């Protein structure tokens, strides 16, 4: 065992939460080490999550446009062929480039990068095992930040085999387009990966036990998304549970249960995307006595991201809240600032959420259902993209913007967008929420013409028709 110098902070995990926290801590004058068990930095997001999935979504969208929409623009091509291996190679290159940039970022900020499996060896010590080097290093630290992320949730009876019954990781690297892809779970993971393979030619069946897809979305948006995806060829089995799945003759037979009746579905591949759970195995939480939620397994922290052990902090998917990369990054910055004696914090009312289907879906703040549950007086303004000149120029007329404001104060409570460029448009709404803006603030802000963002301005103007008459 080797003993290394003492650090002000040891970060365990080099994903969007961990590496951002490490950089911010060095900017604040702390001596930092970042421990990562994988050869490539960047965590789940950069390696097998956000980045490769978006690379495939973009590539598959180009294929879809060439196949179904280029002719509308007067662009005629010959026989269209798919080179899936080239598409996968491009995806891997994007991942390699970005993970390499993370390494350069950490090295440029003088963060010591240590590869190996980390385990808490005390309130101020981290043991790092590097099996390749046959070495165990003991790192001393004033503070320790846990940022190990999450792993796909495995459903009983649907155990992953890595080939036929797969998680999102394997669904990013199929060696051939499945003829029929079954997806268990109608959340953003299943819908995004389903979109990739549907565009490339798969028959896609989504099995969801709830009555609506993307259950956390505003109900009106969720219904519109389901309708549009059906038009794209998705099949949905709503209110349906999966009891088991078995593999035989290169096929997966899925047993479905709805209203007490049992049926079966045969597919080539089955993606199980019902959610993720905190990745805490092997960290030594129990030995150190770190408190976790008995149901979710999430680590309990205070407003400074400190666990019940005062020198140990946790962020990202390990703690309560949405499992989003940008949420983890914000928490990483806040945690580092708290360690340095600054007032770091995250405004959880202003965290955007995005579903990268096409059209995209993006939201911030409360849904209409949540506003009703809280008995808040509210007004709604909506505007369809079919009324926006830029959207019509692109032939993207599906979707709308929905803005919810307090009926008496006009303060923005939530914004929900389904349509082209929604992922980028939501940034203006997040800024408005952060500053406590009103719908009138957005309505009176001049937006460029013609742009997609004009639909947001029009929705804000529509709110005024309601709120000026609110009692």
Automatic annotation (TrEMBL):
<keyword id="KW-0285">Flavoprotein</keyword>
<dbReference type="GO" id="GO:0004148">
    <property type="term" value="F:dihydrolipoyl dehydrogenase (NADH) activity"/>
</dbReference>
<feature type="binding site">
    <location>
        <position position="208"/>
    </location>
    <ligand>
        <name>NAD(+)</name>
    </ligand>
</feature>
<dbReference type="InterPro" id="IPR004099">
    <property type="entry name" value="Pyr_nucl-diS_OxRdtase_dimer"/>
</dbReference>
<feature type="disulfide bond" description="Redox-active">
    <location>
        <begin position="45"/>
        <end position="50"/>
    </location>
</feature>
<feature type="binding site">
    <location>
        <begin position="185"/>
        <end position="192"/>
    </location>
    <ligand>
        <name>NAD(+)</name>
    </ligand>
</feature>
<dbReference type="Pfam" id="PF07992">
    <property type="entry name" value="Pyr_redox_2"/>
</dbReference>
<keyword id="KW-0547">Nucleotide-binding</keyword>
<keyword id="KW-0560">Oxidoreductase</keyword>
<feature type="domain" description="Pyridine nucleotide-disulphide oxidoreductase dimerisation">
    <location>
        <begin position="351"/>
        <end position="460"/>
    </location>
</feature>
<feature type="binding site">
    <location>
        <position position="317"/>
    </location>
    <ligand>
        <name>FAD</name>
    </ligand>
</feature>
<feature type="binding site">
    <location>
        <position position="54"/>
    </location>
    <ligand>
        <name>FAD</name>
    </ligand>
</feature>
<dbReference type="Pfam" id="PF02852">
    <property type="entry name" value="Pyr_redox_dim"/>
</dbReference>
<protein>
    <recommendedName>
        <fullName>Dihydrolipoyl dehydrogenase</fullName>
        <ecNumber>1.8.1.4</ecNumber>
    </recommendedName>
</protein>
<dbReference type="InterPro" id="IPR036188">
    <property type="entry name" value="FAD/NAD-bd_sf"/>
</dbReference>
<dbReference type="InterPro" id="IPR023753">
    <property type="entry name" value="FAD/NAD-binding_dom"/>
</dbReference>
<dbReference type="GO" id="GO:0006103">
    <property type="term" value="P:2-oxoglutarate metabolic process"/>
</dbReference>
<keyword id="KW-0274">FAD</keyword>
<dbReference type="InterPro" id="IPR016156">
    <property type="entry name" value="FAD/NAD-linked_Rdtase_dimer_sf"/>
</dbReference>
<keyword id="KW-0676">Redox-active center</keyword>
<feature type="domain" description="FAD/NAD(P)-binding">
    <location>
        <begin position="7"/>
        <end position="332"/>
    </location>
</feature>
<dbReference type="InterPro" id="IPR050151">
    <property type="entry name" value="Class-I_Pyr_Nuc-Dis_Oxidored"/>
</dbReference>
<feature type="active site" description="Proton acceptor">
    <location>
        <position position="449"/>
    </location>
</feature>
<dbReference type="GO" id="GO:0005737">
    <property type="term" value="C:cytoplasm"/>
</dbReference>
<comment type="similarity">
    <text>Belongs to the class-I pyridine nucleotide-disulfide oxidoreductase family.</text>
</comment>
<feature type="binding site">
    <location>
        <position position="275"/>
    </location>
    <ligand>
        <name>NAD(+)</name>
    </ligand>
</feature>
<feature type="binding site">
    <location>
        <begin position="323"/>
        <end position="326"/>
    </location>
    <ligand>
        <name>FAD</name>
    </ligand>
</feature>
<dbReference type="InterPro" id="IPR001100">
    <property type="entry name" value="Pyr_nuc-diS_OxRdtase"/>
</dbReference>
<keyword id="KW-0520">NAD</keyword>
<dbReference type="InterPro" id="IPR006258">
    <property type="entry name" value="Lipoamide_DH"/>
</dbReference>
<keyword id="KW-1015">Disulfide bond</keyword>
<dbReference type="GO" id="GO:0050660">
    <property type="term" value="F:flavin adenine dinucleotide binding"/>
</dbReference>
<feature type="binding site">
    <location>
        <begin position="148"/>
        <end position="150"/>
    </location>
    <ligand>
        <name>FAD</name>
    </ligand>
</feature>
<dbReference type="InterPro" id="IPR012999">
    <property type="entry name" value="Pyr_OxRdtase_I_AS"/>
</dbReference>
